[in-house]
Every structure is written in C-alpha cells, then in structure tokens.
Input
Amino acid sequence: MSLAPYAALETSSRGRSHPEAAPVYRGEYQRDRDRIVHCSAFRRLEYKTQVFVNHEGDMFRTRLTHSIEVAQIGRAIARMLHLHEDLIEAISLAHDLGHTPFGHAGQDVLNECMKEYGGFEHNLQSLRIVDNLEERYADFPGLNLTYETREGILKHCSLKNARELGDVGERFIQQQQSGLEAQAANVADAIAYNNHDIDDGLRAGLLSLDMMCEVDLFRQQYDAVKKKYPDLDGRRQVHEIIRRMINTQAVDLIDASNRRIESVKPETIDDVRAHSEALIGFSEEMDEQNRLLKRFLRENLYRHYRVHRMTKKAKRILVALFDAYFEDPRIMPHHTQLTVAKGEEHAGMAGRARCIADYVAGMTDRYAILEYERIYNPTTLT
Ligand code: MG
Output
C-alpha cells in the first residue's frame, strides 16, 4: 500500500500518552485497531441500538454492525485516496464506543441527568473509554491509543471541554482540522447510517418505496435499477438500489476529495491540519442531496411514532436507573460501588454522578431493561 505524503504516516505520529516500544510484527495503527477489537466496550456494541432497539429483530443494524460497515466504507475510501487504512479502520471501529443504550435518546437523557455535573456527550465518552475506563493492561489505564486514533474518535467538542482534554482538545481551540483519515471516517459514518437506515426502515415497514422515491438520491438509483431489471422486486430490488447509492456516494466523495487535495496541495499531515477547512467531503451537488436525504429520514423515520415510543420508554428506563443509583449507590454491584466511592472521594457528588453515568452508558439495551426490572419490579428476582 503506497501512502500519500500527507497521509497519517507512522513516522510522523504524535505517539501514545504512555510511551511504549514499537510493535514487532504490526504497525502502530494496526495495534490500535487490535486493542479496540479486544476491548469490552466493543463487544457490547452488539447489543446496543442504532435506530431500532436490539430486541425488535435480528435483522436490524446494531452499533456493532454499523461500526463494521463504517470501517468497510472507510477502508475503501482510504485505499483510493492513499490514506492509512489501518488508522481509518481503528477510528471507525471505535467511533461509537461511547454510545449509551437506546441510541441518541439515551445520550440526551444522560446529558440531562448530568447537567449539574458537566453533562454527557457520547463522543467524549468514546474517548473516555479508550483513555481511562477500559481495564486491560498492566502498565496503563485505558487502551493507550495513538494520538491519531484519538483525534479521529473526538469528532467534535465544545471549547469548554476542549480546554480540559489536553492534546486532542488543542485543535478545537486552534481551529485546526483533523488528519484526512479522521475526516474520511467521519463521512464514511454518514454514508453508512444514511443507507442502512433506509434499509432497516423499509424492512420495518416504517418507510415505503413510494415514500423513498421523494428523495432524489434514492429515486435516481430506483429508476436505473427498474430500467435494467424491470421484473426485480422485494428485498433484492431494495438492496440493489442501496448498494448503488453507497457506491455513488463513495465515488463522488473520492473524486471531490481528490480535486480538493490537488488544488490545496498539502505536503504533510500538518498542512492538512492547518488548512482552513476539511479536504475530505462530497461535491456540492452530492452534499445538497445528502442534506435532503438526512432531512427526509429525520422527518419520516427518526420521528416516526413507533421509534418515538421506544425513545420514550428508553428515557424512562435510564432516568429511573440513574436516579436510583445516585440516591443510593449501595444497590449497585460491589465492584461498581468501589468505583463510585473512589469517584466521590476525588470529586464529591460530581464524581459520584460521573461514575454512575459511566456505568449506565456502558450498559447494553437488554441489560438496562433487566436492571430496571430488578430495581423497580418487586416480583423480579434481584
Ligand atoms: Mg456512527
């Protein structure tokens, strides 16, 4: 694999917080990727909601399959743009580690519960997991990932939080960009969820082909498939349309990004970081089409009453769990009580709240539901 000079070359890496000897048979970003795949938070993604709650059906995306799709799209983009595939894969697989149970609804609830104690943001939580919370190595807390992977995980961040984050917070203060691998993983995330949410929404019966044809991006591929395969219908028709949508978006992204890179001519990753805007992105037309698709999904899928009902239930469960633990941490498992006690010793009630948020955020959908039952249903065995 030949890398562009402005890619994230290992020789120009800003390294790890705790210095370590270079790996023997692997690259640095390969090691990051491997550490992510072996961590507990990664395994729990299997039982966390993307849009549809995990137990609604086995066919829907979960955070785990979503992350794998992001990594696939990201690697394809990286290869065409001569960027570092291992780095983009590591960022993609880690980007959603901090998500709470029940998708975005869960994050909003925890943020509300934590509003007097610094708030809660899934992006920051992903970083907190890889920097502090994972307990896997004798020599350091967390996974001790390279700066470049951590930079990619922290997609956005408020100025207030940036000031407390040290090295990875700097770019938000300096108004700099991330490396191209982080930029590409970010767009790969959007390509993945826009397309798989259409697929899942159609499968769940919340969207229909007729409705989807209101969206240009979908309509174009629908027409092309209809013309070439007039008799095709059902799942194969849907999948043929969606695979073409993903391909069209990826090709547009690669072409438009190449054009931008050619006109700006960065020589190193530092030039990329210092540039006034991101170099990886769609063409203007595709950007607009994507905006329309996103708006359509927001109005018709994410706000569908059946999704909203689940969101409401999720909120009730998480608020109830947070409140019960906060009021009396002695109902938490023993090892978690110890963590909460340490947090409290260090930062008082804010420390207690933060450790409880970590615990609740780390739960899978089904574990949160079970805990709710155990705590609030008097006939459930504890
Ligand atoms: Mg994502």
Summary: The mean pLDDT is 94. Residues 66, 95-96, 189, 193 surround magnesium ion (CB under 6 Å).
